[in-house]
Every structure is written in structure tokens, then in C-alpha cells.
Amino acid sequence: MGDMTDTAIPAPSFPVPMSLSPSRVSSFTSCPMQFRFSSIERLPEPPGVATTKGTIVHRALELLFVRPAVDRTTDALATDMATALDEYRTHPDYVGLRLDGDAIETFDRDCHALVDKYFAMEDPTAVREIGLELWMEAPVGDLTLRGIIDRLELDPDGELVVTDYKTGRAPSGNYEQKSLAGVHFYSFLCEAVFGRRPAKIRLMYLASGETIETATKVDSLLKENMVRDVAEIRRMRREMADGN
Question: How many degrees, rounded to 5, is the angle at CA 89 between CA 85 and CA 94?
Fold first, then answer.
């Protein structure tokens, strides 16, 4: 029998992320281990009902704003929701939910319910949109910050406004600023890409009909936090590259 020697099993090597979305940065700051699992080790995550509903609702509102302003009616949104649902019937995230029978009816009904309060929140015929589901990216050191803006528009004064649709619950007062913190990264993206900072950012919580608005900022504290987060992510990248 040959000699038995202990052989160290090499640690798995994972590709390190070179670009980050605001949601990924938020994940890193709230739970670095979750960030490692989802963004670096890329452990498979099963599709979630709430996330899939949110994706479909976003698509329905995108279809609504593709229409001429005068045609953005409640009936049009109902039609656009039906179209969005049909589009996603074969999407892996929807198929992975394994819905059937009553579950499909409940899912569809919930998606329609998520936009029931929309027309009480704003008049879509008055919105001057200039971008829908707008992909943006900008460098931050040797990383790239990227994100998708649900809707970019002009206010009556011609200033930029970022609107972000939310299908979850609106945060309480204690958590409102935390929810807004990640959204301010979109201010950075707009300023980096367009050379203009949005005048404000609006979070539209469709389920409850609440809207949270805030003046945007890319102040020294936000930049300091971004630099800190990027430095920590670089450190994690180095550790992963070394197999730690």
C-alpha cells in the first residue's frame, strides 16, 4: 500500500465582483456575509413570490409610460398588467414559483391589487418622463457602481427627478432614512452620467399608496460612506482572490 499523506484541499476560487448596484452595496453594509454568499460565491437563490410580483408590476408601469400621456388611464394600466403577466409566464423566476390553479389566480389578483392605489398617488398624464428602466453606471475607484432607475423625469422647473417604485411596505419613521440612503446612490449616478444632480428622489410605495420624497444629496458624508464601503469590498475581494 502506498504512503498516505495529507493533502490540503485548495480553497475554491470565486470571481470577485467588479461592479455593484446600490442594492448590493446596501446588502454589504447590512450583512457582509450575505453579500459574500450572493455576490461573490453566487449561491443559488430560489425565486421569491414578492420579488417576482415586484418585477411584473415594474414592467406594467413601464408599459403604461410607453403610451402617449393622454392614453395613460386605469383601463390601460389593467391591460398593461395583463400583458406583463403574460410576458412572465415563461420567465424562469415565475416558472420557478411552481404555481398552479388557485395559486395562479391569487398571484395575478395580488399583482393587480398592487397598482390599485397608483392613480390616487399621481396623475401619469402630467409626468414628463425622459427615461424608463434606465441603466446607468459610473466608476468608483476600480469598481463600477451601476443601477437601473425606474423612471427619470423632469419637474415643472425642468429639474431631474428620480422615481423609484416599491411594492413592499413603507418604512416606519425610524427606518425611512435608511431606505433613502441607498437611493441617494442614484444621485451620484445621475451626476456622474449627466453632469446634473436630480432635484429630488421619490419612493412610491404602491401597496399602501404612500410616497416619500427627499431632496437629493451627494454630500461629503455620503461620499465618505461610499469610499468606506468600496474599501471594505476591495478588502473582501483580495481575501477571496487569496482563497480566504
Answer: 100
